[in-house]
């Protein structure tokens, strides 16, 4: 697995505001959106392109365009939904699928409760969006799921990751180079309730309120 931690003062600044418990949902949503767009720039570094000839007002030249099959962006519901706009802003032609996964708070295992994805993902580059990589259970389940349907490579985009979750991911995907993890920061640890410390709390609740 390849790990990329964004190292940028704007990312650090926006993350600090997100972590602040005084930051209310409207600002939180806006900042997540901005942060994901910054992360999307890094996450799409390996997106596949093909040569594309065009005419400028002066001459003909060969540039590039996104290659088929189109990338697939998959927010993991609920909290991943807050990352969708920020990602598709840079990849407007991507297809979007949805995966509803949540962890069982007793067993901490990932449970799939909704799936709106094409059955055949052959050759696709899949971008999984999940703000918090905590125990890693959800992300590992989602990665297995899309590879089982033929995905060619997977880039997971997270805001925060715990070292424990990164280790679980490493153990699950080994040295596959077709899995990339892009995060804004790696935090200290998980607490006894599997929350990331220092973290930002429950990302879904902070985005959408407690339901
Ligand atoms: N999910 C969250 O929303 N926050 C955490 O800290 C861990 C998992």
Keywords:
211 residues, alpha/beta, Rossmann fold, nine-stranded mixed β-sheet, two-stranded antiparallel sheet, 30% helix, binds uracil
Explain this structure.
With 211 residues, the protein is an alpha/beta fold. The chain has a single domain, classed as Rossmann fold (3-Layer(aba) Sandwich), CATH 3.40.50. It is built from 6 helices and 13 strands. The chain has helices spanning 9-19, 25-43, 84-88, 137-148, 163-173, 203-208; strands at residues 2-5, 49-55, 60-66, 72-77, 95-96, 98-103, 110-116, 125-129, 132-133, 153-161, 179-186, 189-190, 196-197. Strands 1, 4, 5, 6, 7, 8, 9, 10 and 11 form a 9-stranded mixed beta sheet that branches. A two-stranded antiparallel sheet has the order 2-3. The model has no long low-confidence stretch (mean pLDDT 94). It binds uracil. The site of uracil has 9 residues, from helix 6.
Q: Mind sketching the topology for me?
A:
Blueprint lengths: L1 E4 L3 H11 L5 H19 L5 E7 L4 E7 L5 E6 L6 H5 L6 E2 L1 E6 L6 E7 L8 E5 L2 E2 L3 H12 L4 E9 L1 H11 L5 E8 L2 E2 L5 E2 L5 H6 L3
Parallel strand pairs: 1-11, 4-5, 4-6, 4-8, 8-10, 9-10, 10-11
Antiparallel strand pairs: 2-3, 6-7, 12-13
Helix pairs in contact: 1-2
The structure holds uracil.
The site of uracil has 9 residues, from helix 6.
